[in-house]
């Protein structure tokens, strides 16, 4: 497993590993879903190499990398004369994966015609090269992946519902890195080792104090973003211990985030202590209110049941801005 750096020890990740082992035992189509950068191809490889086809080809293909006019030819091949540039017969990826596994990443990029052909192949293992008159057979396991919501695409006609059912005989959903508690640091160390072995960088360890923000950061690019960060910083570092700065967006959120702790009341009279609690409540409530209204003061006033002018005074009191057409998210 570690040969693909599919690693982690969080509860969410260990659950995935256990399910991968089950998927590997059953030779049926699998649909892997998850955000970009979560390691869908690594999971597909793990399923293949733990299964009965481990000594046969694993053929990955990104369906989004081909023009619409070439997807069918790439998957199913073509015969001589099928189109202008088809000077010879050319086998497709289905043929290359015969006996093994074909991994279809970004399966949502398949054209409607290619979806029909793939559905037919999943039904009876038969396919027809572009321009051919006869069908051929191949023994291939299909593992597909998508970071697009296929359920929603079926409702808009972008993806065939019957194909989704065929692909999702078994399914695996990979958790984002932000839900894998503690795995970011573990993976960062492994990426550092890989960088040192591959590129000979002089960094040999991470400064864990400077990486304390790992568990608070959302990692929108998931494991791929973490890998890119470690490689980039390690390659330009002139020190043995790698220190990583907190992202500016996270630092800004921390600065703006209201303090939810109760104020210290020692030495304060009742009226002063009550005023402190009310002020903290108002600030926290206003932040949440403006977040719900996406910065629109008029909408926030309606949600709060207050007149706009009165709400404006409260916002000004706490130095909280409002915007009618803002995409900014307010700290909670």
UniProtKB/TrEMBL annotation:
Pfam families from the UniProt entry: AAA_lid_14, Sigma54_activat
Keywords of this entry: ATP-binding, Nucleotide-binding
Domain of life: Bacteria
GO terms classed as biological process: regulation of DNA-templated transcription
Keyword presence, ATP-binding: yes
Molecular function GO terms recorded: ATP binding
Ranges for domain Sigma-54 factor interaction: 6-235
InterPro entries hit by this protein: AAA+_ATPase, AAA_lid_NorR, Homeodomain-like_sf, P-loop_NTPase, Sigma_54_int, Sigma_54_int_dom_ATP-bd_2
Keyword check for ATP-binding: yes
Matching PANTHER family: ALGINATE BIOSYNTHESIS TRANSCRIPTIONAL REGULATORY PROTEIN ALGB, TRANSCRIPTIONAL REGULATORY PROTEIN
Protein name: AAA family ATPase
